[in-house]
What does this fold into?
Amino acid sequence: MAEAGRILLVDDEESICELLSVVLRRDGYSVSTARDGEEALHAVQARPFDVIISDLKMPGMSGIDLLAKVKALHPSMPFVVMTAYETWNTAVEAMRLGAFDYLKKPFDNRDIRNTISRALRPSALREGRSPRQEEMFQHRLIVGSSTKTKDVLDLIRRVAPTDSTVLITGESGTGKELVARALHLGSTRANEPFLSVNCGAFTDTLLESELFGHAKGSFTGAIAEKKGLFEVADKGTFFLDEVSEMSVATQVKLLRVLEEREFKPVGSTETRRVDVRMIAATNRRLEEEVPRGAFRQDLYYRLNVIAIDLPPLRDRREDIPLLAGHFLAKYSKLMKKSVVRFTDDAIEALIGYGWPGNVRELENTVQRAVALTDADEIRLTDFTEKIQQTRGALPFEPMIAPAGIDLERTLDELERRYLEKALAQTQGNLTEAGKLLGLKFRQMRYKVKKHGLRKEAELPDEKAGADE
It folds into this structure.
């Protein structure tokens, strides 16, 4: 079997290294291990690796310190951090320093395999790509470690290499174009053009001309022949954003492109053939537009071959610190500022806010705060008043999607997050963490064990718990 890639595992727990080594070697990877940060740094200085997977909490050099040193040596080397204990500031710092992903223990083998697959894809496609593609690969397109985000990433990973038509749905600001770009960059067309058109930005006549081109003299102002964007995107990927804004007449022409791979420019009798992968997006429910006659049913079925529904930010709040850290790094660099963190109350406010504008609004908020702050950190007062007022509010406003929710799973995830937060605030002391949550030591011990936050051998018994 050909070597799939070189991976360095860094963890002071020998059992973790052994388990992951077995799993990854079976997949054809060459695996090296290090028991602490110093040993890992020597290994990186001696030879390059395709991916590094490191624990955060280790004796001596921490995973965060190792991440910073590795990025100084090899800025483009994917670095995945993992830990059993998560604090928001640690997550922010990891993303600010350029971590590729952030995994919480315990994780299953599928999580590791999917993460490594995504981390390795840029190097596999490195040869022959343009400077713009290089830039896209160097910045992670979709940030988050929540279950919903991982589900989307897993679907992208499976769908990207195919040539299937994809329909992306979700509220404005959820990142539909980022998903479309990720699908393109993970496909066999990655080195070909990626063209994007917002159907709502043009009148019907202009949109038709933009998409299909026009012949000279076909309408007032058509002083020369114009090549359409479908033709420009030949062999590549074509992204139609807000496809629900397209008129029924233009929908007929789009359907022909999908079914026959051909079209006629406006005012021309000549048929042009084109080979593009189609990705469409909308913030409306097209299945509701069809009965009203606003959207053709046959086109809906042709577009909805594979559906990717993006959850709003309020339904994946655990991603907010990671996204905030990502945007903090981006705008600190652009504005040439040394802003390195958020204060605790600032992070609490970001998590508590409802984000009607989703990820786009969060990015704008962080950009504004970086611009306004005169310190090395973003404080609560650097946000708008409406965001400041959410500090101390409930971590989320209950929202139920039309398709319903899995209440047991949602409550289970919420309980785990509170346990992690309490343990982080008390440096892992079960007795003190239990007091914060109104739990007796025995209840706290049971819940920590249930969620896999500590191994059985690491948990104190009830007598020892009183002396923690």
User: Anything to note?
Assistant: Residues 419 and 447 are 8 Å apart (CA to CA). Residues 124-140 have pLDDT under 50 and may be disordered.
